[in-house]
Design goal:
With about 575 residues, the protein is of the alpha/beta class. The protein has three domains: about 5-190, Uracil-DNA glycosylase-like domain (Uracil-DNA Glycosylase, subunit E); about 205-400, Nucleotidyltransferase, domain 5 (2-Layer Sandwich), CATH 3.30.420.10; about 405-570, Up-down Bundle (Taq DNA Polymerase, Chain T, domain 4), CATH 1.20.1060.10. Helices cover about 40% and strands about 15% of the residues. The chain is built from 21 helices and 18 strands. It has helices at about 25-30, 35-45, 75-80, 85-100, 110-115, 140-145, 165, 180-190, 210-220, 265-285, 290-300, 310-320, 325-335, 340-345, 350-375, 380-385, 390-400, 405-430, 440-450, 460-470, 475-500; strands at about 5-10, 15-20, 55-60, 105-110, 150, 155-160, 205, 225-230, 240-245, 250-255, 285-290, 305-310, 405, 515, 525, 535-540, 545-550, 570. The strands form five sheets. A six-stranded mixed sheet has the order 1-3-2-4-6-5. The protein has a six-stranded mixed sheet with strand order 7-10-9-8-11-12, with helices on both faces. The protein has a two-stranded antiparallel ribbon with strand order 13-18. A hairpin with a 4-residue loop joins strand 9 and strand 10. Helix 12 runs parallel beside helix 15, helix 13 packs across helix 15 (about 350-375) and helix 18 (about 405-430) packs antiparallel against helix 21. The chain is flat and about 80 Å long. It starts with 6 loop residues before the first strand and ends with a strand. About 35% of the residues are buried.
C-alpha cells in the first residue's frame, strides 16, 4: 500500500479533510487530484477560495475499497479490512491538525465528520447505555452539514464529499441543488477560518414552572407584536408543550400538562397558565414553521390564533422552491445554530424535549427575520403575502368542512373494482402458475428477477417497474404482461383501499389534512393522525384484524382515464 500524505500551505487557517485517497491520488502521491479533485477545484472556485491557501488531507492515508453498489459499509470497517490501523490513523490525524493549526476544518463526507467529531450514522440499535445515557453521537451527514461543530481541538463544518456530485446514484445527497448547498458550506467554513474562537448563537431557553413565570415573560415583551410559536407532541398528536419566542435570544416552553413527568405544576396554577397562554396566542401576530399543522393541534385544545402572519416553510418556498423546506435545513442556511434535533431532544429526557421546543421557537424567529431580505431581493413579497400566506386559512376551512360521501356510488364502484381486481389476479395466476400478492416487494422481486430473470432493478416500486417496461430490449410479451398486471393490480387495490373503503368521520364526512407540495407547488394531502382522527379495528381480505384511521389522504385522481369514476363518491 502506498502512503498519500496531506499537502498544502503550512499554517493554513482552512483545512479540507476527505476520507481516503483514490487510485488517482495513489498514483500521483497527492490528495484530491483525480475526478473528485477536479470537482473540488470547481467548488473552491465557486466559493472564492484559493486551493493554495488551504491544507488538504484525508482521514486514512492509504487507499481503501469503495462501497459495493447497494451496500453502505462504514469506512473504518473497510479500512480495517484493508489492513489499516484505524486508531493509529486517527492519532496521526490529530498530530497533523496540531501541526497545521487550522482555525476551521471543512469535513468532506461522513467519514471526515466521524473522525473529527465522533458522530456516526444512525443505527437501528440505540446508542445508549443501560442508564439511558448517550454512548456516542449519531446522525446523518445531511442533518449536520453546514453546522459549526468542534472536533480534535478546532472548529469543524461538515459538508458532502465532492465525489457525491459525480456519483449521485449512490450518494449521500439528492437533488440538483446540492452544489448550491455545498458552495454555501464551503463559504461558511472559509468565514469561520478567519478566527479561532467558537462563536455560536447565545440563547436563553427556559421551561415555564409557574403562571408567575409566564406572566413575567409576557410582561417583559409586552411591546412586542410578533411571536414565534412551536409545539411538541412527544410522539402523540396532542401537544404536550408550546414554545414561545419574541426574539431569537429568549425562548420559553410552556408545559400543558402535569402528568407523565411533563411537569409538576399544580392543577390550579396550570389553569392560570392556560388562561394566560390563551390571551398571548390570541393577541400576538404568530410566526411558525409549517404552522398550519401546529395551529390545528392548538385549536383542538381550545386556543384561538387570531393572526398568523408568517410561515418559514412557505417563505422558503417563495425564495427557492427547489431546496428543502424543513426547519433543520432552513436553520443550517439562515442561522449559525448547529443541528440539534438528534442531540437528545427526541431520545433524551422530557426536559430535553421542552428545551428543544423553546430552541425551535427562537430559531424559527431568527430564520424568519433572515429570510426577509432574500424575499425582498427576489421580489417575492407580494406572491408570499397575497398567495402563499392565504393558503393556510383555505386549507383549514376545507379540513373543517370535509367531503360528503355518495354511498350509492360507492357501493356500485366497489363492486366494479373488486370484480376488476379478481379478473386481474386470475390473469396473473394463469401466467405465473401461483397466487401473487402484488403489494409484496419480496414476492415480486423473487418472481421478476429470480424466477423470470428479468433485468434487475433496485426495487419493485412503480418507478422501477415502469423503467423495466421502457427498456427496448424487454420484448418478451408474456413477461411484459406480467409486469403490466402487477402495476395494474396495485392501482386497483389502491383505488379500493384508499378511496372506496375509506372510513368517514363520525358525522359521515371525509376529512384529511392539506398542505402545499413544496416540490411542485400543487396541493397535497395526508391522513390526520390519532387521536385527532380515531382508529377503528377492521378485518382485511385475509381475515386479519388491523387498525384503520377515520378519514383518508386524497391523491390526484385524473378527470380522465380508467379510475376517474372514483371521483363520483365525493360530494362537496
Amino acid at each position: 500500500m502506498k502512503y498519500v500524505p496531506g499537502g498544502g500551505s503550512i499554517g493554513a487557517k482552512l483545512m479540507l479533510l476527505g476520507e481516503a485517497p483514490s487510485y488517482a491520488e495513489v498514483e500521483a502521491g497527492k490528495p484530491f487530484v483525480g475526478p473528485s479533485g477536479k470537482e473540488l477545484d470547481r467548488l473552491l472556485k465557486d466559493s472564492n477560495i484559493s486551493r493554495s491557501d488551504t491544507w488538504i488531507s484525508n482521514v486514512f492515508k492509504y487507499e481503501i475499497q469503495p462501497n459495493i453498489k447497494g451496500k453502505k459499509i462504514p469506512s473504518w470497517i473497510r479500512a480495517r479490512n484493508a489492513g489499516i490501523n484505524v486508531e493509529e490513523s486517527l492519532k496521526e490525524l490529530q498530530e497533523e491538525i496540531n501541526s497545521i493549526k487550522p482555525n476551521c476544518i471543512l469535513a468532506l463526507g461522513g467519514t471526515a465528520l466521524w473522525a473529527l467529531t465522533g458522530i456516526k450514522p444512525k443505527s437501528k440499535k440505540k446508542s445508549e447505555d443501560d442508564e439511558g445515557n448517550i454512548k456516542y453521537r449519531a446522525g446523518s451527514l445531511s442533518n449536520f452539514r453546514g453546522s459549526i461543530l468542534t472536533g480534535m481541538g478546532t472548529k469543524v463544518v461538515p459538508t458532502y464529499h465532492p465525489a457525491h456530485l459525480l456519483y449521485t446514484d449512490a450518494s449521500e445527497i439528492k437533488g440538483y441543488w446540492n452544489r448550491f448547498v455545498m458552495v454555501f458550506d464551503f463559504k461558511r467554513a472559509n468565514a469561520q477560518s478567519k478566527f479561532p474562537e467558537l462563536k455560536l448563537p447565545q440563547r436563553t431557553l427556559q421551561i415555564c414552572r409557574s403562571s408567575f413565570e409566564l406572566a413575567e415573560f409576557r410582561a417583559r415583551y409586552k411591546d412586542k407584536i410578533k411571536l414565534s410559536v412551536d409545539i411538541e407532541a412527544g410522539g402523540h398528536c396532542i401537544p404536550i408543550c408550546i414554545g414561545l419566542a419574541f426574539n431569537p435570544q429568549h425562548g420559553m416552553t410552556v408545559p400543558l400538562w402535569n402528568r407523565d413527568n411533563i411537569s409538576s405544576i399544580p392543577d390550579s396554577d396550570l389553569v392560570q397558565i392556560w388562561l394566560i397562554l390563551a390571551e398571548i396566542l390570541y393577541e400576538k401576530e404568530i410566526i411558525g414553521q409549517n404552522f398550519n399543522y401546529d395551529r390545528d393541534k392548538i385549536r383542538r385544545l381550545g386556543f384561538s390564533i387570531r393572526k398568523h402572519i408568517s410561515d418559514t416553510m412557505l417563505k422558503a418556498f417563495a425564495i427557492n422552491p427547489e431546496l428543502p423546506k424543513s426547519l433543520a435545513f432552513n436553520t443550517s442556511i439562515y442561522t449559525e445554530e448547529p443541528f440539534y434535533k438528534d442531540e437528545g431532544m427526541y431520545e433524551g429526557r422530557i426536559s430535553d424535549l421542552l428545551i428543544g421546543c423553546a430552541r425551535d421557537a427562537c430559531v424559527t424567529y431568527e430564520v424568519d427575520e433572515n429570510m426577509e431580505p432574500d424575499l425582498v431581493e427576489l421580489n417575492q413579497v407580494e406572491f408570499y403575502n397575497n398567495f402563499l400566506m392565504k393558503l393556510p386559512e383555505l386549507y383549514l376551512s376545507i379540513e373543517n368542512q370535509g367531503f360528503g360521501i355518495d354511498e350509492v356510488a360507492r357501493e356500485r364502484l366497489l363492486k366494479k373494482y373488486i370484480a376488476m381486481d379478481e379478473q386481474n389476479r386470475y390473469e396473473l395466476f394463469k401466467l405465473t402458475g401461483t397466487e401473487i400478492n402484488v403489494n409484496s416487494p419480496k414476492q415480486i422481486y423473487s418472481l421478476l428477477f429470480d424466477n423470470l430473470k428479468l433485468p434487475p432493478r433496485k426495487g419493485t416500486g412503480e418507478e422501477e417497474l415502469t423503467s423495466l417496461l421502457n427498456l427496448q430490449s424487454f420484448t418478451n410479451k408474456e413477461h411484459r404482461k406480467i409486469v403490466e398486471l402487477i402495476l395494474e393490480g396495485r392501482r386497483m387495490r389502491k383505488a379500493i383501499s384508499t378511496y372506496l373503503m375509506a372510513l368517514p368521520d363520525y358525522d359521515g364526512r371525509m376529512r384529511t389534512t392539506y398542505f402545499p407540495c413544496l416540490e411542485t407547488g400543487r396541493t397535497s394531502t395526508g391522513q390526520q393522525d390519532p387521536p385527532i382522527r380515531s382508529m377503528v379495528e377492521v378485518i382485511d381480505e385475509n381475515g386479519k384484524k388491523k387498525q384503520k384511521v377515520l378519514g383518508m389522504a386524497f391523491q390526484t385522481i385524473s378527470k380522465h382515464g380508467e379510475y376517474s369514476d372514483v371521483r363520483e363518491i365525493f360530494i362537496p
